[in-house]
Amino acid sequence: MTTIGLLGTIHNAELRDRYNCSLSLYKRIIHEFKPDVICGEVHPQSWQKYMNDPQDKGYWGEPASEYWELIFPLCQEHRIIFVPIDWFELDVWHDFDPFIGYGAEERKKLEQQDDAWFIKQMETSTYGNIPFNSNEFDQITRMKYEWLSKVSPKSQNMRWQVRNQIMIQRVKNAMKEYAGKRILCIVGADHNYIFQDELRKEDVHWIYPLK
Q: Superkingdom of this entry's organism (predicted)?
């Protein structure tokens, strides 16, 4: 049977240090899982750029630093197959800013509320054995995105719902191609709850949290 694991990461190095989720922790967890395949939050175009030139850091600051510093080198060293699963359309991304249709004062208030949600998420760091890989974090994150969906349904559908649907479908495609293998999904921790909702329905051995 195919085994699917999920590791939610924090993209920001400063926050990783502050909340005890260092790259060394991620490295240890990946080694313990022993993946044959890693499905990572990397745009296929960025992955192709990397394959063509490992010194080319993609565009728009993507992929996140943990890929350049840890995951890509691990895949190369241990011959782990890497599958890029991210999706976005850069030329229209900013046109779907969740607060784009609001005036200056309203936007400021909404941004403050967004910051408050982020603080609530960070406050869950002590739950579970891997920071931000817990039911407590996922519950707060689900509530945050439900709020964003009410604030701007159109933007949230484009930036979050459709994006996650495509990312998860790419994982499912990898499951078909690498049936019977150990597949590890590595995504920003905000994605955890949606990946859990969808992938645990599949006929696989599902592991989340990983510890």
A: Bacteria
Q: Distance between alpha carbon 128 and the CA centroid of its chain, in Å?
A: 18
Q: What is the DSSP letter of 59?
A: B
Q: Kind and range of the H or E element at 165?
A: helix 163-177
Question: 174 and 202 in contact (C-beta within 8 Å)?
Answer: no
Separation between Cα atoms, residue 15 and residue 27, nearest integer Å:
17
Distance separating alpha carbons of residues 148 and 158, to the nearest angstrom: 12
With a CB cutoff of 8 Å and minimum separation 6, the contacts of 165 are: none
CA angle 114/118/120 to nearest 5° reads 115
Sequence-distant (6+) residues with CB within 8 A of 126 are none
Alpha helices in the chain (DSSP H): 13-18, 23-33, 44-52, 65-66, 72-78, 90-93, 104-122, 135-151, 153-156, 163-177, 192-199
pLDDT, tens digit (0-9, with 9 covering 90-100), for 44-62: 999 998 889 888 776 566 7
Do 142 and 193 form a contact (C-beta atoms < 8 A)?
Answer: yes
Q: What is the chain's length?
A: 211
Helices (H), 19-103: 23-33, 44-52, 65-66, 72-78, 90-93
Q: What are 120-165's pLDDT values in tens digits?
A: 999 999 999 999 999 999 999 999 999 999 999 999 999 999 999 9
